[in-house]
TrEMBL record:
Pfam families: Transpeptidase (PF00905). It comes from Ruminococcus champanellensis (strain DSM 18848 / JCM 17042 / KCTC 15320 / 18P13). This is Cell division protein FtsI/penicillin-binding protein 2. Keywords: Cell cycle, Cell division. InterPro entries: Beta-lactam/transpept, Beta-lactam/transpept-like, PCN-bd_Tpept. SUPFAM superfamilies: beta-lactamase/transpeptidase-like.
Length: 452
């Protein structure tokens, strides 16, 4: 009798274990079927939309049936499932796009989707504004973190495929906003932040230096100004607006500006200095490089040049834009950018919703507010008053970056709109710009108008 009871208990236990295992198996199949379908030979994907519902990627019907040029401005950012590009929204979020359910199978409704924060119309207008020039434009809402524009030109048109890939222009398969570039004088924003942190706003504003066109630093090396006749005596507002190299060289060599303090501020902002391990910024899975520079001797040309955006300094346009948010908000804390607003599954149910996130403290509130004051002064007196950017209270810093061994020059403009109802921070780069061609402020004007 006891053996029969033990047998019953054993059978009951085995049945419970079997049923538990079946339940776990069914649940795992339900939850993970989409992943295995995505790894199979015949995956089915969903859609990617902009903030207004415009299609940015069609994983159901393919991208070939859309009007010519529909994807020409966003191909290297959004990407596709071909495997040709890996650091794109689609490639980094394939599982969210898998258009399959174990219970319902594959769907053709377009409910499986990533809804982005991008404004495709503004993206197209900005892309068109570059004309024949290549470059980068990136803009986001510095209050919410919503990325609105991200143009990288040249850009692959995913609808045309990769049959002629050997003849694609260099950079077509990269979203260059996420990779380091020579910042030129936009680097002086970081140097102003460092100077404010070390000297304080009051002392920084009290300083003045003379520019005669060239300055001989303490190591007897010449720091030349772009204006050969010089700018004369200037304060920080004038030196910043004029992008005067001799002014900044003298500021860096000033007593009370020790190199270790400058390095400390740069590191706090996210620079990898003197061989530090470089980090990355993740934007919905897309990886963006962080800044790097080499600073060895504050009295040496190379170090001074690096603090002015040449030398070995590299910064991604995305990070240049993010620093602008920390200045614009007056907090020293950057709003983290994001591309994904919501994700919906095969049933149309929202499975992910974006939220506003922030970095840690990059620099002090005092440094943010002083830099904000200096940049707004530049925007008001040299851009708005000059009619370069109309209709906006703008804060800006321009830059010219020597690249390719000094054979070419890139033109940059970073800044933000000082408007709580239109809080846009941006970075624009025109590659290999020649005098007389389209200028960065003209692209910014068209981009802001399109967003407005």
């Amino acid at each position: 009798m006891k053996s029969i009871l033990r047998g019953r208990r054993l059978i009951t236990l085995m049945l419970l274990l079997f049923l538990t295992g079946m339940i776990v198996l069914v649940v795992r199949i339900q939850l993970e079927a989409s992943f295995y379908i995505s790894q199979s030979g015949k995956p089915c994907y969903g859609m990617v939309y902009d903030r207004e519902g415009d299609v940015l990627f069609d994983g159901i019907n393919g991208c070939e049936g859309y009007e010519s040029g529909h994807f020409a401005d966003i191909g290297s950012l959004i990407g596709d499932t071909s495997g040709q590009m890996t650091n794109t929204l689609v490639a980094r979020n394939l599982e969210s796009l898998t258009n399959y359910s174990f219970t319902t199978g594959m769907r053709q409704t377009g409910k499986t989707a990533i809804h982005t924060t991008l404004d495709h119309a503004a993206n197209k207008a900005t892309y068109s504004a570059f004309g024949k020039k290549d470059g980068i434009a990136i803009a986001y809402n510095y209050k919410t973190g919503e990325m609105l524009v991200n143009v990288s030109k040249p850009c692959v048109d995913v609808a045309k495929g990769y049959g002629d890939i050997a003849n694609f222009p260099e950079g077509s398969l990269l979203c260059k906003a996420f990779y380091g570039t020579v910042p030129g004088s936009t680097q002086k924003v970081s140097t102003v932040i460092a100077a404010t942190e070390i000297l304080g706003a009051e002392q920084l504003e009290s300083l003045s230096y003379s520019c005669t066109g060239s300055y001989l630093n303490d190591n007897r090396q010449s720091i030349n100004c772009h204006k050969s006749s010089g700018h004369g005596k200037q304060n920080i507002f004038q030196g910043f607006a004029n992008s005067c190299n001799p002014f900044f060289a003298q500021l860096l060599e000033r007593s009370g500006m020790p190199l270790d303090r400058i390095i400390s501020v740069y590191r706090s902002m996210g620079y990898a200095v003197n061989g530090d391990q470089k980090q990355t910024i993740s934007i919905d899975g897309i990886l963006s490089e962080t800044a790097s520079t080499t600073l060895q001797d504050i009295h040496d040309f190379d170090t001074q040049w690096s603090c002015m955006g040449q030398g070995e300094t590299l910064v991604s346009p995305c990070q240049l834009m993010m620093w602008q948010s920390a200045v614009a908000n007056g907090t020293g804390v950057s709003t983290r950018p994001h591309l994904i607003d919501t994700v919906t599954n095969v049933s149309g149910k929202v499975t992910k919703t974006a939220s506003t996130e922030y970095t840690g403290q990059l620099f002090s509130v005092a440094a943010a507010q002083e830099t904000r004051k200096i940049m707004l002064d530049n925007g008001k007196n040299h851009y708005a008053a000059a009619g370069k950017i109309k209709g906006y209270d703008i804060a800006v810093k321009s830059g010219t970056a020597q690249v390719n061994g000094g054979r070419e020059e890139n033109s940059l403009l970073v800044g933000f709109v000082d408007d709580p109802d239109f809080p846009i921070a941006f970075c624009v780069v025109i590659e290999n710009r020649v005098s007389g061609e389209i200028a960065t402020h003209q692209i910014v004007q068209k981009m802001l108008d399109a967003l407005k």
